[in-house]
Every structure is written in C-alpha cells, then in structure tokens.
Amino acid sequence: MALPSPDSELFRLMSRFPRGGRVEWIGLRPARDVPMREVASVQASAGGGLAGDRYAGGSGKRGITLIQAEHLPAIAALSGHAAVPPALLRRNLVVSGIPLAALRDRRFRVGELLLEGTDSCDPCSRMETALGAGGYNAMRGHGGLCARILEGGTLRIGDAVHWVEA
After folding, report:
1. Could you give the dihedral angle defined by the CA atoms of residues 53, 55, 61 and 62, in that order, rounded to the nearest 10 degrees?
2. What pLDDT is recorded for position 1?
3. I need a labelling partner for 28 at 20 to 30 A (CA). Which of 20, 52, 57, 126 fits?
4. Three-state SS at 9
5. What structural domains does the chain harbor?
6. How far apart are the C-alpha atoms of 115 and 26, rounded to whole Å?
7. DSSP of 24-65, one letter per residue?
8. pTM of the predicted model, to two decimals?
9. Are the C-beta atoms of residues 22 and 37 closer than 8 Å to each other?
10. pLDDT tier at 152 (50, 70, 90 boundaries)?
C-alpha cells in the first residue's frame, strides 16, 4: 500500500503511534533447514543482514524479518497450541508494543539500526511442519514485516523500536 499524500488526514493518522516498542527476542538462521539460534545481540550491516544469518550477504528487501509479540498468542490459538516459541516462526526479531504493519513503507529505528519496512513477511509452507496442519493459515495476517537495513550497528534484546518521521 502506497502512503497517502503527506498533507492528508489519513497520512496524519498513519503517522501517530501511541508508544514505541521493544525488541523481545533475536534469532538467526545460520543455514537452510536448520533450527534458529537465539542470541542476545548481533551485528547488522547496511544493505546486508545480520551476521551469522543465512541472508547476511545482501538480501536487499529482506535484510531482517520482524514479528509482533502480541501476535504469538493468536498464532498459537489458531494452530491449536498453548504457546508458540519464536524460533519456530523463523523471524529474526520479536518486537512488542508497536504495530509492525504500520511500519511498512516507512523508516524506523531499532536501537542503533535504521530500517525501512519493505513488505509483509508472509508465512511459507514450512509452517505446516512447524505448527502442524493448518499452520500456514494460522499465520496468515500475523507473519510480520520484512525490512531493509539502511544503517547498521549492534542490535540487542531490549532495544527500543520507534518510527522515524520522513
């Protein structure tokens, strides 16, 4: 969805956030078909990705993936689980407190990093294995956000997440 005109009421509404967010979890996918590795911090490179992640070599629009912490209970309920560990969902960051969908096509900071939301992070067929039959559909609308890394640095659990005015 393209952003509305900067002088419109809709743009004004889309630019207001009740509060910032926080990084709750960080995970890396070192290679295809291996479990994610949880870390407390990681280096991120502009135009690239996260050190130790399989997409670190310059994945462009998908330099980092984020999922909303508040969506984890919904995914668990829809897939018939009491809880869903973040590593099963194969996203790099779990973020709480700020609506990730509102950051698509926008710039935002996560600690030292400057990111740009590029696209929704739709589920893949692996969710059927991870969550069981219907796992793909359980994640639809809850898959999170892909982002490009514009400015790198060290990313840490507990880092603040906030929108950056254009």
Report:
1. -50
2. 57
3. 20
4. helix
5. 19-163 (2.40.33.20)
6. 16
7. EEEEE--STTS--EEESEEEE-TTS-BTTSTTTTT-GGGSEE
8. 0.89
9. no
10. very high
In DSSP terms, 67 is beta-bridged to 94
3-state DSSP call for residue 115?
strand
pLDDT of the residue at 155: 97
- Of 142, 133, 124, 125, the closest CA to residue 80 belongs to 133
- Cα–Cα distance measured from residue 114 to residue 103, given in angstroms and rounded to the nearest whole number: 12
Q: Number of helices (H) and strands (E), helices first, in the chain?
A: 5, 10
The predicted-structure confidence for 51-102, as pLDDT tens digits, reads as follows 999 877 665 677 899 999 999 999 999 999 999 999 999 999 999 999 999 9
Tens digit of pLDDT for each residue in 47-64? 889 999 987 766 567 789
Question: Which residue intervals of 90-151 are DSSP H helices?
Answer: 126-131, 135-139
**Cα–Cα nearest to 156, from 17, 37, 44, 19:** 44
Tell me how far apart the alpha carbons of residues 112 and 109 are, in angstroms, rounded to a whole number. 7
